[in-house]
Design a protein that fits this description.
By secondary structure, the protein is of the alpha/beta class. The chain is about 35% helix and about 20% strand. The protein has an 8-stranded parallel barrel with strand order 3-4-5-6-7-8-9-10, surrounded by 6 helices. The chain has a 3-stranded antiparallel sheet with strand order 11-12-13. A hairpin with a 6-residue loop joins strand 1 and strand 2. The structure holds guanosine-5'-monophosphate. The site of guanosine-5'-monophosphate has 24 residues, from strand 10. Guanosine-5'-monophosphate binds next to strand 10.
């Protein structure tokens, strides 16, 4: 399941399992990175950590015998497109030059402001790998790649706690977006990251099969010991909070509330506590290996060449319901 990449602009080479934990404050935590990098899985660390938090994290990595500096190959620093975000990014990277990945994440990648922001960050960091998005169509995939991004983040509206499609009517079917954007990116030696919409291990096989080079997931990594969010107990059962980064919960936490000119585009849910994230990782990787075997792909890299999609009206036999008795 490991792949080795060389990128369009950056000279950095990367090898690992091309799955990324989402840069949401409930999933993209340092504790998550500590657990998942041992399986060569990547974490886009959320943008609300400051330099002080990163320095503390580096000290934790130094002090724990089961961690080593290779963890920095499996993390990205995230930033929005505001000047204050860029200042935070620059202060972190100036102290921690060993970090090679930057994740430039905005809800709507279709603005001139975002394109010029990507150009600016590329000029500042010619050697870093820049992930940029989100977009869902070929022309904007090409535009961002040409302007300096290495990996295009693809997905508007597919997320498990996203309400953009309900609130704005805007969105694009995620598999169609992947197929279209992968085709555009690969023609320019670029790569794409499918962001959102994977809710079971089989979805990862479909996204890779559709041509995605990397897959980002939030919901699959929520509800674990290593996830952020409050622990909640209801009638003796344990839950963990998970919410969208544009939900009113997140806006109250980070921006002092929902500004009157906008509405929330995300929701808050309670996830039954899932234990350590290791269980989920093994489930995803086990599923993916079997996907490869079923379709006759000797490695993940070849999966999209071996995949055929068939349009269906129903995927699962649910005669006994959709949940399983443990
Ligand atoms: P999931 O893997 O849970 O289906 O989707 C995770 C992705 O949903 C994130 O990586 C991010 O792109 C997107 N997302 C996170 N929070 C929100 C939100 O509040 N609103 C919207 N529209 N998308 C969100």
């Amino acid at each position: 399941l490991e792949r080795e990449f060389t990128f369009k602009h950056s000279s950095v080479k990367w090898k690992g399992v091309p799955i990324m934990v989402a840069n949401m404050d409930t999933t993209g935590t340092f504790q998550m990175a500590e657990a998942v990098y041992k399986h060569k899985i990547f974490t886009c660390i959320h943008k609300y950590y400051t330099l002080v938090d990163w320095v503390a994290f580096a000290e934790v990595v130094n002090s724990k015998s089961d961690l080593d500096d290779s963890i920095f190959n499996y993390v990205a620093v995230s930033s929005g497109s505001k000047d204050s975000d860029l200042e935070n990014l620059q202060s972190i990277l100036s102290h921690m030059p060993q970090i090679n990945f930057i994740c430039l994440d905005v809800a709507n990648g279709y603005t001139e402001h975002f394109v010029s922001f990507v150009v600016r960050v590329r000029l500042l960091y010619p050697d870093k790998v820049i992930i940029a998005g989100s977009v869902v169509t070929r022309e904007m995939t090409e535009e961002l790649l040409i302007k300096g991004a290495d990996i295009i983040k693809v997905g508007i509206g597919p997320g498990s706690v996203c309400t953009t499609r309900k609130k704005t009517g805007v969105g694009y079917p995620q598999l169609s977006a992947i197929i279209e954007c992968a085709d555009a990116a690969h023609g320019l030696n670029g790569h794409i990251l499918c962001d959102g919409g994977c809710s079971v291990p089989g979805d990862f096989g479909k996204a890779f099969g559709g041509g995605s080079d990397f897959i980002m997931s939030g919901g699959m990594f929520s509800g674990h010991t290593e996830s952020g969010g409050k622990n909640v107990e209801i009638d003796g059962k344990y839950f963990k909070e998970f919410y969208g980064m544009s939900s009113s919960t997140a806006m109250e936490k980070h921006s002092g509330g929902v500004a009157t000119y906008r509405t929330s585009e995300g929701k808050r849910v309670l996830i039954p506590y899932k234990g350590s994230v290791v269980n989920t990782i093994l489930d995803i990787l086990g599923g993916l290996r079997s996907t490869c075997t079923y379709v006759g792909s000797d490695k993940l890299k070849h999966l999209s060449k071996r995949t055929t999609f068939i349009r269906v009206t129903q995927q699962l036999n649910e005669v006994y319901g959709s949940s399983e008795v443990n």
